[in-house]
Amino acid sequence: MKYEELEGVRRSDLWLMHISPYHFKYRIDHPQEQTPTLALGSVIHKYILEPDTFFDEYAIAPEVDRRTKAGKEEYNAFVESLGDKEAVSVTDYEVAREMAAAIPDEVRELFKGKKEEPIVWTDPQTGEICKCRADVIGDGIIVDYKTTTSCQDGHFERSCKAYGYKFQAGMYCEGMFQNTLEDYGFVFVAQEKTAPYAVRVYYCDKDFIREGQEQFREFINLFHECKQKGEWPGYTSTELLADGE
């Protein structure tokens, strides 16, 4: 069964509770469509984490001029031959190859383990089914690969706050604990999206993970409450704007 078909509230949706339940419910009712940026991210993830099976899922599109009859026929034949595979442009494929080549061997060691592993559990406090998918599950550690605009000091730390990476680490570690009754560590491998595709590794300390688990507890409790009431409120406070603000 595909991850998308598994029952459970997923991490990327539950994170929207930090804005409001209304934003969460809108995402559930209006699933995010695939964009070129998201598609490229999927290509890069697959090539870096599972290069041996990359061509089981992707096929490189021919570089043809689809404005011509011959080019259009060649491209249509390619599309018909795809089957369940997804097309990837030569440009995107080359970017993925270059990014993979830029990852140091000692960092690549972190990618050893189970890849793209679903983590599914029933939250013992609310009874809600939760799910997430780990890039890599190793020996007592979860590894998540991220692309970023910069790995300079402070930049990725700001991304952690903006995109809920602390919450992600907490939720994933909570899921592994509920499945194994063991505490797992969490590591982010961040790589810049532009040449020379520099890499930096971020090990999460216990406080970082604990605070993420506290965020998970807050959001799953709120989700459960809204689900029980059938109410998904948006912004609830009224703000007073003073002169000069």
Spell out the blueprint of helices and strands.
Layout: E1 9-10, H1 11-14, H2 21-29, H3 36-49, H4 54-57, E2 58-60, H5 69-81, E3 86-88, H6 90-101, H7 105-108, E4 114-122, E5 129-137, E6 141-148, H8 155-163, H9 165-180, E7 185-192, E8 199-203, H10 206-229
Parallel strand pairs: 1-5, 2-3, 6-7
Antiparallel strand pairs: 4-5, 5-6, 7-8
How would you sum up this structure, described in words?
It is a single chain. This protein is α/β, with parallel strands linked by helices and 245 residues long. Helix content is 44%, strand content 19%. Strands 1, 4, 5, 6, 7 and 8 form a six-stranded mixed β-sheet that branches. It has a two-stranded parallel ribbon with strand order 2-3. Helix 3 packs across helix 6 and helix 9 crosses helix 10. The longest helix has 24 residues. The protein is globular, with a radius of gyration of 21 Å.
Determine Rg (CA atoms, Å): 21 Å
Low-confidence stretches: none
Tally the helices.
10
Strand content: 15-25%
Please give a quick description of this structure.
The protein has ten helices and eight strands. It has 245 residues and is an alpha/beta fold.
Q: Which properties best describe this structure?
A:
single chain; 245 residues; alpha/beta; 6-stranded mixed sheet; two-stranded parallel ribbon
